[in-house]
Amino acid sequence: MSADVEYLRGLLRAFPDYPKKGIVFLDIFPLLRDPVAFETLITHFVHRLTSHTIAQSPSKKIDVVVGLDARGFLLGPIIAMRLGAAFVPVRKKGKLPGETIHAEYQKEYGVDVFEMQADAIQPGQTVVVVDDLVATGGSAKAAGELVSKLGGKVLEYLFIIELTFLKPSEKLDAPLYSIVKVDD
Questions:
Q1: At what angle do helices 72-83 and 35-48 cross, to 10 degrees?
Q2: In 65-184, which residue ranges form alpha helices assigned H by DSSP?
Q3: Hey, which residues does 127 pair with through a beta bridge?
Q4: How far is Cα 32 from Cα 140, in angstroms, rounded to an integer?
Q5: Is the four-CA dihedral 105, 182, 57, 80 of positive or negative sign?
Q6: Cα(45)–Cα(177) distance, integer angstroms
Q7: 7: enclosing H helix or E strand
Q8: Contact, 24 vs 15, CB < 8 A?
Q9: What DSSP character marks residue 26?
Q10: Strand 86-92 relative to strand 110-117: parallel, antiparallel, unpaired?
């Protein structure tokens, strides 16, 4: 494990039995309250994208960073700005003005819906999707479906935390990258 990953992992706070019994919630907010940690986090993602993801892209660039409601909004605009890319939010149903497209995804207690503005991504644009945590991959998959509906191509999905035991990468149409992997 690299020193920056070890540093970031050490700042995450664990809350047992939250939001329900048997779940250990990892809190990312200590990373955001510490300016050095937040900079380390953003720099880690940007380094990954510039040293690996862009090299794999046919166009050698990332056009759009998509952030998932709501914690993806904390990371996505900063990463987009550093890359010279646009930022596009994916929101829960009914939260965006204008014409939208939607995709459904399964949650532990039912179905939810994500939306994106219908003119947010142009055909052929390259996209990365960012959020704080990936569990089953359902919400990330829905975001990828929205990108595809508009003719964009997801190059990679980025997360601070991945619950690897739930095998989220099996649902996604592009590679998944996470900084902290949780195996149980």
A1: 60
A2: 72-83, 138-149
A3: 64, 154
A4: 22
A5: positive
A6: 9
A7: helix 3-11
A8: yes
A9: E
A10: antiparallel
Q: pTM for this one?
A: 0.96
* DSSP-derived secondary structure letter, 19: S
Is residue 62 within 8 A of residue 26, CB to CB? The reply is no
Q: Pull the structure tokens for residue 106.
A: 């399964």
In angstroms, the CA 140 to CA 158 distance is: 10
Q: Which residues contact 19 (CB under 8 A, 6 or more apart)?
A: 25
Report the SS3 class of residue 102: strand
Query: Cα(21)–Cα(52) distance, rounded to whole angstroms?
Result: 39
Confirm if 159 and 178 have CB atoms less than 8 A apart. yes
| Residue-level pLDDT, tens digit, the chain, 184 residues | 799 999 999 999 999 999 889 889 999 999 999 999 999 999 999 999 999 999 989 999 999 999 999 999 999 999 999 999 999 999 999 999 999 999 999 887 789 999 999 999 999 999 999 999 999 999 999 999 999 999 999 999 999 999 999 999 999 999 999 999 999 7
Q: Which residue has the tokens 């532990």?
A: 108
DSSP secondary structure string, 119-137?
Answer: TSS-TT-EEEEEEEEESSS
d(CA 143, CA 103): 7
